[in-house]
Amino acid sequence: MQMSLETDRREYRYAGLDVDSLAKDPHAQFKSWLDEAIERGISDPTAMCLSTCAVGARPSQRIVLLKSYDKSGFVFYTNLESRKAREIQSNARVSLLFPWLKLDRQVIIEGEAIALSRDEVENYFVKRPEGSKIAAWVSRQSMPIESRAQLEDSYNRMSHRFAGEEILAPDFWGGYKVYPDFFEFWQGRENRLHDRFSFSRDNPSSAWVMNRLSP
Questions:
Q1: Is the pLDDT of residue 6 over 70?
Q2: Angle at 83 between CA 162 and CA 160, to 5 degrees
Q3: 29-36 mean pLDDT
Q4: Which of 46, 99, 102, 188 is most buried (most C-beta within 10 Å)?
Q5: CA distance 192 to 103
Q6: Are residues 109 and 78 in the same domain?
Q7: DSSP assignment of 8-35, as one string?
Q8: Based on the domain organization, do 178 and 163 belong to the same domain?
Q9: Around Cβ 147, how many Cβ atoms within 10 Å?
C-alpha cells in the first residue's frame, strides 16, 4: 500500500521550551543543545544545511560540517571554487540550519560569512586525515567530470605525487566564519503548537533581543 504523504505525521512528545529554561545568550543556548545532541548519540550532530544565494536571487543549499564555534561565530571549510564559495563572494549573507530531528529540534542561524585567514586554514588542514587532504587537491568542486573513474584516477595520481611528503592546503581551499545576527530555536510540541524563540541584533555591539514566535 502506498503511503499518503498528506496523512503521514507523528506527534512531538519531548518537553517544551520556555523563557525560564532558555539561556539569555543564544550562543549559550546553542552550546547546550549541541552538547545534548552529542550526548544523546544523534547522528552527525554537527551537520548543518548551509543556504546561500547568488546575486540573481537563486538560492542553493548543501550539508556541510561545523568545525568550530565560539562567541563570535561558526566555522566551516570548503573548496573556494565551489558554488557555495562563489555565491558567498557575491553575497555574504547566509543561513545555517541544524536539524536535530530525533530531539524534535532545529536551530536556524543567519549572518555574514567572512573568509578565514590562510593561517587559520592551514592550522585546520594539517589535522585532516591524509585521504581528505589528497581529495581536497583532486576535487574541482561543482565542476562537471566525465566519470567516477576519472576522479579515482586523479586521486591515485595525486596520492603518488604526495607520497611521503607533507600535504599543505591548496590555495583554492579555505574556510568561512559565519558571524550571526539572528538565531531561532525551535522545539516541536504536541498538536503543532511548537515553541519558537528568536534572538536578533543589529550589530555586534548591540544586545540580543529575544522574542517568542508563533508556531
A1: no
A2: 10
A3: 98
A4: 188
A5: 15
A6: yes
A7: ------S----GGGS-SSHHHHHHHHHH
A8: no
A9: 8
Classify residue 90: in a domain, yes or no: yes
Per-residue pLDDT, 1? 60
Grid coordinates belonging to 80: 573556494
Burial string for 53-79 (b: 16+ CB within 10 Å, else e) reads beeeeeeeeeebebeebeeebbbbbbb
Nearest CA-CA partner of 77 in 191, 143, 175, 181: 175
140 catalytic residue (yes or no): no
- Name the DSSP letter for residue 187: E
Catalytic residue among 192, 196, 201, 212: 192
Q: Are residues 181 and 77 in the same domain?
A: yes
* Location of C-alpha cell 599543505: 168
What is the pTM for the complete model shown? 0.90
Position 64 pLDDT exceeds 90: yes
Rama region for 122: left / alpha / beta (φ>0; ψ in -120 to 50; rest): alpha
pLDDT at 12: 67
**In the predicted structure, residue 133 carries a pLDDT above the cut 80:** yes
Answer yes or no: do 70 and 139 share one domain.
no
